[in-house]
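Hello forum,

I keep getting stuck at the same step: I have a sequence, I want structure tokens, and every attempt I make locally crashes halfway through. Rather than fight my setup again tonight, could one of you with a working pipeline run this one for me? It's a single chain of 444 residues.
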Amino acid sequence: MRRKQHSQAAIAKVASPKPSLAFVDAVALIVGIVIGAGIFETPALVAANVSSNAALMLTWLVGGAISLVGALCYAELATAYPHVGGNYYYLKRSFGQRVAFLFAWARMTVVQTGSIALLAFVFGDYASRILGLGTFSASVYAAGAIALFTTLNIFGLQQGKRTQNLLTVATVLGLLLIVIIGIAFATPTSIPATESTNSGGWGLAMLFVLLSYGGWNEAAYISAEIQNRQRNIVRSLLWSIGIITVIYFLVNLAYLKGLGLEAMGQSQAVAADLMQQALGERGAIIISLLIVIASLGSLNATIFTGARSNYALGQDFPRLSFLKSSGSRSSPTGAMLVQGAIAIVLVVLGTLTRRGFETMVDYTAPVFWFFFLLTGISLLVLRMREPDVQRPFQVPLYPLTPLLFCVVCAYLFYSSLAYTGIGAIASILVVGLGIPLWQWHQSN
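Reply #2:
Ran it on my machine without issues. Output:
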């Protein structure tokens, strides 16, 4: 009994913001993070690696099912250990402060900031198609968007979530428009037959699908800010993934109906090809506007959640205490400013390589999936180490469900190393810099 009281008291003792997010707000955040630029780019890559229409549609359903498995694992962690630091806090309780510090360092310098820069580049690329600003138009748009949405979120939680709700609704409505136009008006493209578009098979196709589903785990970082968290964390994860799976399935059905599998696999811009075929040049403009909106929605949500683990880092390490400064508002101002500055530096890096989007994918993927794997393992560790901690939600079919989640994460970690370039090496080196920083902290 003493052990249980001590564990629960330790969890309750951590500082966390006032619960301000309703169920609908949490769903909007998760849907907004996941449904971004990926659904406009990865379907062509998936189609190039499957052999039939049925296999294409099955991959997207399997992707939703795997995401649901991960969400169930996160639901247990988030309800048992609600904390502003999310994964950071789970890793600290499981593996100690050193691993947690390296995760927070990696998230601040690689994972979250790289994702912010990636989404900003997508916004910049498509905004430039609508209104060009010169040679470095995409980079100017990207840096400007990061600065704008960082500022919006610094103004406070209410401003950030209202903006996010609006952008998420606009994105979902736009995708539904693609579904209607693709199924009702477009006719499959007739193109010359090729030997095969199947270059990597089912495994590579699932890699792209699961990358498109990535982001639902961000609910862990707002778990301490959700109202009625014991009920709404689980509900928000399940509803969000259900909505995302249905939308992804219907959008790919529209691509398949409007273009056909062969044309999808050979397309460089599958959504633009579909809309141009159905509506002409107007369709290309419409899809550019849609992708701009989707990218901004994901960018805003990623900035919103990203600063939360940096805030937790500032709480635990006195030399980084500037990260937890909040001023007179509920938003972690210090963490927001640092995050925005690093993301803009990465925009500069992407500009120098002239492969902004691809460079950021290479840069973020290996580190992300490595720590995702450790988080899955932490569920198993905490179940054994802290059996008396109250768990309002317990993952079903334990331990098979978390073990399956860990296997998937391990596969994606391997794939991200196998299919990425120099950006992966750069990210590993940046994470490695966290080791001497940890030693410097320990020396005092």
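The chain is about 75% helix and 0% strand. If your local run keeps crashing, start a new thread with the error log.
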